[in-house]
Amino acid sequence: MAFGFAEIVTMLINGLVIASTLFIVASGLSIVFGVSRISNFAHGSLYMVGAYVCWSVMRVLPAGVMWFFLAAAITAVVVGILGLLLEMTVLRRLYHAPHHLQLIATFGVFLIVRDLALMIWGPQELFPPRVPGLSGMIRVFGRPFLDYYFVIIGASIAILLILLFLFHRTRWGILLRAATQDRDMVAALGVDQKWLFTGVFLLSAVLAGLGGPLLALAKRRFVPVVIGEIIAGVIVGRTGLGSVDPAQATVSFLGQVGFAMLMLTVGMHLPLRDRRLSASLRSGAVLAAIVALLAVPAGFVAAAVAGTSHAAIYAVVLASGSAAVLLLALEEADAAQPDALAVMAQVTIADVLTILSVPIVLRPGRAAHALLGTALVAAGVLLLLGTAKLLAGHAWVARVRRLSRQRHWALDLRLALLVLFFLAWVAQKSGTSILIAGFAAGLMVALIGGPKRLSTQVRGIADGFFIPLYFVVLGAQLDLRGLINHATMLALAAVLVALNVLIHLAAVVLVRRPLSAGLAATAQLGVPAAVASLGLAEGVISGTVATAIVAAAVISLGVCTLGVGLLVRRQGVHVAGDTGG
């Protein structure tokens, strides 16, 4: 898999597109935070409203490039007005409030706006119409790119130049920069900061409104939202504002519930009933075994770089995968070739084995307790599975479930949560971790094959609140400043990334699979998060080590996305070759 100048240009343009996308979305958010010191969790909802409003306007206007830009302008005005009302009714009362109240209030606004969007536009996925003149391809050094990519890059440059002009060449911009440096002095000079902040929020909302239509037409890229949640935790935690204390009893309890919910969803996402996956289990098991063997010496290398005795912990992290992340990435890319299925089987097996290993490697001296607790949780799962199998064929069970669906009792959800908390109680009493309980409950649901509405309901509770809160709490525990200030910890993060890529590439080379399959298998999330949370809670690892592990995991998500993209491109080449033959 040779890389030449054309491949370098391809990665450069793709990187510029991603950077431009992030700049368009985040510029307004950073401006508000810089001036008013408010972390506006509702900023993303304004961007979402912009996409929906643009979709509605484009259905009315004729097709064409100029009409699209008119729709974008109308959208910016509508979202700007919405942002203005939001600032005048909610945020204006929060400028001098504690940070945690600002976070709660803006998160509440986000929930309200999201539910209003569901009421108006519905839960289905909406696709904007194709715009003539923005749907073609441009070739650069022989590689095709959507011409819309260059529109995004050009738009981000234009927005940057306009912002630079506003901030450096206008009186309003000078006052804004002064307020960022010393708000009290600006007030002493007689400047009405109330309307200054209102203007800032209006500008932020207009930028979010422009981002909606500009990015709605672009091809979607899989970027897990967990990255933003961890960054939010870093901002409000020990590294940043210090307004969230992870050790506070309520925050700690909610984080533990979120951790259990995360493991539940990880288990539920394992495609254990997928018949296509069963055909790839043998090759997936071979790949997982090779990676696990290579992870052992790699763990010692990482421990030597860090100067710690955590070789077993690093080995488990390096051998892990993230079936939930990879499954979503493959679905987004519509990748279903044998190589993709083999990677999915590999990561599924790695997920199961490494999650079960986490409590053991964190506390080797309590391995017997961890194994006993795991056995008790497994016995509870088998008992519940047997009970579910016995009840499955009875008519009264089907009648009760039908009534639950008709009358919105959500019995399946209640039972799933009851099982989760029962297994968590067993795990706590037997000396193992709730990680095992949550994962076991998710595996049980995956094996039974619960209805789709159960998955939707669990995602609503878990992904809608508890899991984001868990990752925010995890981010608040991380010591990003310590990571940056310690060259050894930066080296640890870099080595974990490099070893993760190397051992997965070595595995696919040994079994003669494409290198892109190895890159796709590098995604890590659940196990590094569990190691960081449990390791910090039990005092096994330091905050900087946990930060290095999580940072390496976040980077692995980008490597996985690159690998899935290369897999899809390879699939397209093979399909074209078969058609041509």
Keywords:
78% helix, 1% strand, 2 domains, disordered C terminus, 581 residues, Na+/H+ antiporter like fold, globular, two-stranded antiparallel sheet, mainly alpha
Q: What order do the helices and strands come in, and which of them pair?
A:
Layout: H1 5-36, H2 43-60, H3 65-89, H4 99-121, E1 137-140, E2 143-146, H5 147-169, H6 171-181, H7 183-188, H8 193-216, H9 226-236, H10 249-269, H11 275-278, H12 281-306, H13 311-319, H14 323-333, H15 338-362, H16 367-392, H17 395-407, H18 411-430, H19 434-448, H20 452-477, H21 480-485, H22 487-510, H23 515-520, H24 526-537, H25 543-580
Antiparallel strand pairs: 1-2
Helix pairs in contact: 1-5, 1-8, 2-3, 2-4, 2-8, 3-8, 5-6, 6-8, 9-20, 10-19, 10-20, 12-13, 12-15, 12-22, 13-15, 14-15, 14-25, 15-16, 15-24, 16-18, 16-19, 18-19, 22-25, 24-25
Describe the overall structure.
By secondary structure, the chain is mostly helical. It folds into two domains: 5-216, no CATH class; 226-580, Na+/H+ antiporter like fold. Helices cover 78% and strands 1% of the residues. The protein has 25 helices and two strands. It has a two-stranded antiparallel ribbon. A hairpin with a 2-residue loop joins strand 1 and strand 2 (143-146). Helix 9 runs parallel beside helix 20 (452-477) and helix 15 (338-362) runs parallel beside helix 24 (526-537). The radius of gyration is 25 Å and the shape is globular.
